[in-house]
Amino acid sequence: MKYLAAYLLLLQGGNAAPTAADIKKVVEAVGVEAEESRISALLSSLEGKGSIEEIVAAGQAKLATVPVGGAAVSSGGAAAAGGAAGEEAAEEKEEEAAEESDDDMGFGLFD
């Protein structure tokens, strides 16, 4: 993903045809080691595909067909768990899970 981001940054910066050396320079400028094989794989996958706008439009069309629904929570589950008390307990568990996710990393975003 970092190589694609570097490629897109170069395009935005006015470089109409970024090379492997250009991408490597951008990636290494932020202190990350660049892998030549991944850069060449990216460039070969983009070769002959047209403009980046066409590639993005084709990707959006494909993405529109991907189901994005997750597991639905039924309202019957809350009623079976004791009505309002069950809903409150479920909300508390969600809040605790959100708080614990920050603790796992050892720091908070705004600490």
Short recap of the structure:
By secondary structure, the chain is mainly alpha-helical. It has helices at 2-12, 20-29, 36-46, 52-63, 75-80, 84-105.
State the distance separating the first and last CA atoms: 28 Å
The percent of residues in helical segments reads 55-70%
- Poorly predicted regions are none
Structural class: mainly alpha
Summarize the main sheet: none
CATH overall fold name of the domain at 2-60? Arc Repressor Mutant, subunit A
How confident overall, as mean pLDDT?
Answer: 78
Describe the structure.
The two termini are 28 Å apart. This protein is flat. The protein has helices at residues 2-12, 20-29, 36-46, 52-63, 75-80, 84-105. By secondary structure, it is mostly helical. It is built from 6 helices and no strands. The model has no long low-confidence stretch (mean pLDDT 78). Helix 1 crosses helix 2 (20-29). The longest helix has 22 residues, at 84-105. The chain has a domain at 2-60: Arc Repressor Mutant, subunit A (Orthogonal Bundle), CATH 1.10.10.1410. Residues 72-111 are annotated as: Disordered. GO terms for molecular function: structural constituent of ribosome. Keywords: Phosphoprotein, Ribonucleoprotein, Ribosomal protein, Signal. One of its GO terms (biological process) is cytoplasmic translational elongation.
